[in-house]
Amino acid sequence: MSETQQQVEELIQSRYKAGFYTDIESESVGAGLNEEIIAMISAKKDEPEWMLEWRLKAFHHWQTMTGPNWAKLNLPGIDFQKIHYYSAPKQKDRPKSLDDVDPKLLETFDKLGVPLHERARLAGVAVDAVFDSVSVGTTFQKELKEAGVIFCSFSEAVQEHPELVREYLGSVVPYRDNYFACLNSAVFSDGSFVYIPEGTKCPMELSTYFRINARDTGQFERTLIIAEPGAEVSYLEGCTAPMRDENQLHAAVVELVARKKAKIKYSTVQNWYPGDENGKGGIYNFVTKRGDCREDDSRISWTQVETGSAITWKYPSCILRGDRSAGEFYSVALTHNHQQADTGTKMIHLGKNTSSKIISKGISAGKSSNSYRGLVRVARKADGARNYTQCDSLLIGKTCGAHTFPYIESANPTAKIEHEATTSRIGEDQLFYCQSRGLDEEEAVALIVDGFCKEVFKELPMEFAVEAKALLEISLEGAVG
Amino acid sequence: MLNIKNLHVAVGGEEIIKGLDLEVGPGELHAIMGPNGSGKSTLGYALAGRDGYEVTDGSVEFDGRDLLELEVEQRAAAGLFLALQYPVEIPGVNNAYFLRAALNAQRKARGEEEVDSMAFLKTVREQLKALKMDEALLKRAVNEGFSGGEKKRNEIVQLAVLQPKLAILDETDSGLDIDALKLVAEGVNRLRDENRSFIVITHYQRLLEYLVPDRVHVLSDGRIAESGDRSLAQRLEREGYAFLDTAEA
Ligand SMILES: Nc1ncnc2c1ncn2[C@@H]1O[C@H](COP(=O)(O)OP(=O)(O)OP(=O)(O)O)[C@@H](O)[C@H]1O
Ligand SMILES: [Mg+2]
After folding, report:
1. How far is the CA of B50 from the centre of ligand 2 (A)?
2. How is chain B split into domains, by residue range?
3. Where does residue A159 rank: exposed (0-12), middle (13-18), buried (19+ CB within 10 A)?
4. Which of A215, A327, B104, B224 is the most buried (most CB within 10 A)?
5. A439 contacts chain B (CB < 8 A)
6. Tens digit of pLDDT for each residue in A396-411?
7. pLDDT class for B41, splitting at 50, 70, 90?
8. Residue whose CA is at the smallest distance from ligand 1 atom 28
């Protein structure tokens, strides 16, 4: 191997910058899944009886289900008895404030670029940090409380706001919904809870950062966001994991409820460890995200930038129940090496004059496979429903694949559904043009990809857009040439 | 400035440039004319270092360096600029952003500081104004949806901002209306000085009335078949390339 080739190899190897492991004492429940384990998780969290009952109902139902096999994924069998369903950094008591949090944990999040100390944090973003199965701290609690906003870990919400959790948990994604959502309902550990009271515009961006650290551990978080009538919130989610040879499972559930005229904007930058260049290791990311535009004139918008995970299986959806409610889905999914992504959205039009917009940008490099799967369903009573879908795929190199599977089901003749799809390769002419103006090949690819993703990036909050762009650049290192 | 000796270039395994010699001194403007398919664009691409344009023999010295040793972007940073016959569209990439990224990449490669954004914008605006281009083009994506003439003028804006030592203009005059042709020629003339050289590929003598060339060459079948002063261009305009056949026969 020539020296420069070696350098390129090293570059690719080092491209996953979040791949470090934090050496911290943790307590976890034994591997495997049964009623005792579930009871143990529930007990560790000091949960009320109804919560445990709900978990067990889900578990019993899950035992009757079989995993999905319809997505265009090469899905290796997962041994659910080998996974640890709970792991938490050892702490004497639940930290009351950030000052009580183990410095090693704070350091981990610092290293990841998510400093938890409020003075270090960019003004205007409150963060909840989830490390393996538990939340380690939420910032800006006081300021949010003054606005009447509840932003805390899910476990805390179960303790402090049980009436809200009980009312809304599973109301958007019932535990029976699908295999992984059902599993999550049985074993979910932590996650974030957001409640925005009537007429309140959340004074700052809210964000949760998920980190898988422990070995052989699954992460099953649950997020619930409730926007009361006229409320508005923008929520961001980021995630990473150390580099490991074994695959790790991440099966999350996110439920959003938007009431009359409420607006929820949910953005994700997903950067789970994707596995190495030979396809070894990496996170299996099976996530159920759904938003319910429950009342009239509500709006839910999903924006996602997906660069990580060995396998991604994810379809953030909107149920457009209220009249004139609107759903949006903006997605950039990048796959490289042996990554597989099957992602898209579902827009279910139930109310009158509902509208949805889908902008999906898939970028595939290496030997990866990248599929868009989208469903637009218009119910019989949904007069005047409108959908616009645009799906663009960009191929880098000749060994990757891109696929588009649009499903359209309309039971109402007044529906207007538009679908546009393109597939292109990064043009040699574009690369040459950029290079002849002085950009090197990697800069040129990054620029072309950035241009390709523009429509999605502009939906992201400012700091996230910058991060997303940098992430794509890192993920594409060594993709050409 | 540029010294090409016995250059052979193959494209897709087929030899297109077949032993070409050309010397361009500092501050000189050379015109290259020649029939369609004779290899003019191929020469430009080979000098810029485009993939697939394989130099099979010969040497090219540029500003005291071996040009053929350099990567495409290194040639750009060394001061070579090629205005394309068909400028490329880059969807979603802001035109001004692209230009500044290019300029900064070149400056960085030369160990210079990044440009000051305000100064950069000022220069670009002046150039646009001189070329009577709408400022809105700066905010649009690179060449996307530009008219043919706008694309060509955009190449000249890039040329003016990047300030290369040698600019190769590949049919920048084709597709321009009469007024635009004048503007482009004036743009080029403003950039001419004793150190900056030009190779202007064109089919029309009209451009050469504005850009007075030091030398005119006729490229035919991959070689320079004829060289002369500007009167050669006038003769070609009158007689076409028929004389090449008789000369060869
Ligand atoms: N990729 C390619 N594969 C095969 N032949 C090619 C390729 N590119 C160029 N050629 C051939 O090389 C020859 C020279 O092409 P070139 O574009 O350099 O001509 P030109 O002198 O610029 O012509 P014009 O005046 O029409 O612009 C042509 O016969 C062309 O078909
Ligand atoms: Mg040509």
Report:
1. 14
2. 2-248
3. middle
4. A327
5. yes
6. 877 788 888 899 999 9
7. very high
8. B37
Q: Give the number of whichever ligand sits closest to the CA of residue B32.
A: 1
For ligand 1, whether the C-beta of B231 sits within 6 Å is no
Task: State the nearest Cα–Cα gap between A18 and chain B, in angstroms.
Answer: 28
Contact A432 B90 (CB under 8 A): no
Instruction: Check residue A228 and give left, alpha or beta (phi > 0: left; psi -120 to 50: alpha).
Output: beta
Cα A348 from chain centre: 20
Query: Quick one: pLDDT at residue A399?
Result: 79
Q: What is the pLDDT of residues A325-378, one digit of tens each?
A: 999 999 988 888 777 878 899 999 999 999 999 999 998 888 888 888 899 999
Fold of B2-248: Rossmann fold (3.40.50)
**CB neighbours (10 Å) of residue A66?**
6
Amino acid, single-letter form, for residue A297: D
ipTM here: 0.95
Sign for the CA dihedral angle at A237, A240, A241, A246 comes to positive
d(CA A208, CA A39): 26
Confidence tier at A12 by pLDDT (50, 70, 90): very low
Residue A451 has pLDDT above 60, yes or no: yes
Q: Is the CB of B46 under 6 A from ligand 1?
A: no
Task: Judge: A439–B105 Cβ closer than 8 Å, yes or no.
Answer: yes
